[in-house]
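Quick question: what would this complex look like in 3D?
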Amino acid sequence: MTFWTVAGVVVLTVIIGLNATQIAAPYINYVAALARPKVDKKGLVLGVTLLLMSVLYFFINVGNFAGEGLSGMTDSSYIGFIWAGPVGLFTQFQIAVVLAWFIYCAIQNPHLRAIAYLLTLAAVSMSFLSIGHASNAAWWGKLALLAHFIVACVWFGSLYSLRKLATSLPIAEAQRVMVKFGAHMTGAVPVLLFAGVLLYRSATGSWLPSTPFSSYDIVFMTKLSLVVLILLLAAVHKLVFVPQLQTPAKAKRLQTSVTWEIVLAIGILTAAAALSSAFSPH
Amino acid sequence: MKTLVKILIGTSLLLSAYANAHVSLVSSSPAAGEVVTESPKVITLSFAGEVRLAKMMLHAEDGSMYPLDHVMSMTPQATFEVPVKESLPIGSYKVGWTAMGSDGHKLTGNFSFSVRE
């Protein structure tokens, strides 16, 4: 694995994380009944960061193919080559995501905002259908990817806000938000897991990894191990920490535990980015 | 934060330990290891699936490069025929190629052949 591959995986992880935050934004506002600012300045900063990361990801791919060190990132012939391929299409969709997101952050009209959000969601979805094995998958493989991706985005994209809300809201209100989130995720996680199994079947042609394990299988099993850990941690939150959320000390404990959930989520997103950009199931 | 950095480094190291496998080159002309008696006018690469050929280079044993009439392919295809611009003198040659799979992944490979009397 080269510098370019590692750099690509890291930047793609950041892009997925930013997309997850975008996709989860209206959901967490709804669950926590948060008032939305007139102009969402943090959202605009997120959009600018996403634009920079998408451009960086594109040029990392240019540099990877040019194979001439950092100077290869500006090779015009390779820029044209990458732009005409899956990574170029991914970048174009991510630019569309940023434009739709800027509208979402800046406008007040709820109907137009809903349309801007749906455009953001559609462009994010299309971008991830353009790269990795999904670009060649059958319709059900693409559908599985979308279901898996969107549920994971809503879950992981909510964690940072939930971490803050654990201690910033009055305790009873924080508990209400956590209970609601836990109930929603209890319904969504089976969809996430079922879609994940279908996704693996679509990518590899088998239901489970078998020996000899390919490098794709090993990364997949690493991701699966992290998924098991995050599910266990989420279960502890739902069954123990949230019901006991009655004092500031318990709120702090939950906040620390959600931090660990975020760390696990970053690990899962990194593995997902590697499966999309660095490893092939074939 | 330190924990996060450790996890990211650990993940990178884990991933770096494994090589990836993609659509492969199934045949070429001249074939890998083949000895030909005439300088080839065209080098043909055939892949297991459709790819876009980005780069192809032909080097002699002493490292000198022989030009190929190759332009980057903008549309994916499974077979590429690349003309050799100069007649190759007797010796051993190495062909290196770089292509993009239909999933956007980078594919690389090389093979050698010889020209003998």
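Answer marked as accepted. Residues 234 and 261 of chain A are 8 Å apart (CA to CA).
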